[in-house]
Amino acid sequence: METSQRKAGPLDGLKVVELGQLIAGPFAAKTLADFGADVVKIEPPGAGDPLRKWRLLKDGTSIWWQVQSRNKRSLALDLKDAQAQEIVRRLASEADVLIENFRPGAMEGWGLSPDALMAINPRLIVLRISGYGQTGPYRDRPGFGVVAEAMGGLRHLTAEPGRVPVRVGVSIGDTLAALHGVIGILLALQHRHASGKGQVIDVALYEAVFNCMESLLPEYSAFGAVRGAAGSALPGIAPSNAYLCSDGGYALIAGNGDSIFKRLAAVIGRHEFATDPELADNAGRVAHVERIDAAIGDWTAARTVDEVLAALDKAGVPAGRIYTVADIAADPHYAARGMLESVRMDDGSEITVPGVVPKLSATPGGHRRNAPLAVGQDTDDVLREVGLTPAQIGELKARGIVGNKT
């Protein structure tokens, strides 16, 4: 859809200042930008956000950058300089939200603490994302998503039993923290509607992971149970596992509903399972999970993934294949849902990027502009908006306090 055809997003008019870099803070700001917020991303002059050089590069810039920084404007500022800090204060005085993901104390060291900024603008909402939060004995430790995933309890579970715990393959700790931060911002905006006042949102990476760990803690509290790695199975829920098929692929089968299990039993030709009172509910099936898994595995081993999925789909049993990104890119459902969005780059080439979620019927999000190609690409426009003259901007550029468009 062309930019001119898009409806205004639900956050149209919301002004956001992004001081973070890499993943957690920028992902939160990206989510707001996707739904209409005007996000000014502050980058250090020169190299800019390190994410610009992460993973695979196209014409010297990360393809990831095109997703993480779409719909944003880039302002290059040296935050260690007093004049740059004054520019941040000007931006904050007119902003609705400020996002930062530096180590605790960095903002205070620059004279940009939430208290100082909210004294200028009491309506300001400040999202602070850090490894361990702004308080507590670990607050000053450096914390990345991978460490948070381990401390939050996730890494202990992501393994085959008896083997080294592995990461999930993406920076899930950072992303979970970002999404919790967005939730916090939306809650704070609702509070501001009623009170007229902003507030500080303190998100710790490890807490965002821990918040998604389901019954892990109460099970330990009540029973002393320490959940361990279970590979592809879902502990305490049966049957739910990955089963090897004749073509070497795996089918994920979730037959753990009582009526679903009966339909699954019929499909695999084990009708005695459907009538066995010991397998009528989840507790009984968990007690016999090895026998059930073996029977399902015998059935899948004689069929290809496509044959398994076709039979289970016909019977109404939830099942699926393990997608690679090539599978995703070719999938008609992804395409029909607008999740494979073609974007024309500044050089005229096209790339496919993930579409916007969630889907809103009246005020959907969308891709309004590409990620800023140059560090500080929008510096002049942003500085003029906060009252600086061309002469003042030129002086700041000459001194290296703000970045030139390159």
Note the main attributes of this structure.
single chain; 406 residues; alpha/beta; Rossmann fold; formyl-coa transferase, domain 3; 2 domains; six-stranded parallel β-sheet; three-stranded antiparallel β-sheet; 13 strands; elongated; CoA-Trfase_fam_III
Query: What count of domains describes the coordinates?
Result: 2
Major β-sheet profile: 6 strands, parallel
The CA-CA distance between the termini, in Å, is 29 Å
Please work out how many helical segments DSSP would assign. Answer: 18
| Assigned CATH architecture of the largest domain | 3-Layer(aba) Sandwich
Q: Report the C-alpha radius of gyration, rounded.
A: 25 Å
Percent of residues in β-strands: 5-15%
CATH superfamily of the largest domain: Crotonobetainyl-coa:carnitine coa-transferase, domain 1
The name of the CATH topology of the largest domain is Rossmann fold
Cross-sheet strand order for the largest sheet: 5-2-1-6-7-8
Decide which structural class fits the backbone.
alpha/beta
Strand element count: 13
CATH class of the largest domain: Alpha Beta
Categorize the overall geometry.
elongated
Uncertain spans: 1-5
Q: What is the average of the pLDDT values? A: 95
Helical content (DSSP H or I, runs of 4+): 25-40%
Keywords: Transferase
GO molecular function: CoA-transferase activity
InterPro entries: CoA-transferase_III_domain, CoA-Trfase_fam_III, CoA-Trfase_III_dom3_sf, CoA-Trfase_III_dom_1_sf
Organism: Caenimonas aquaedulcis
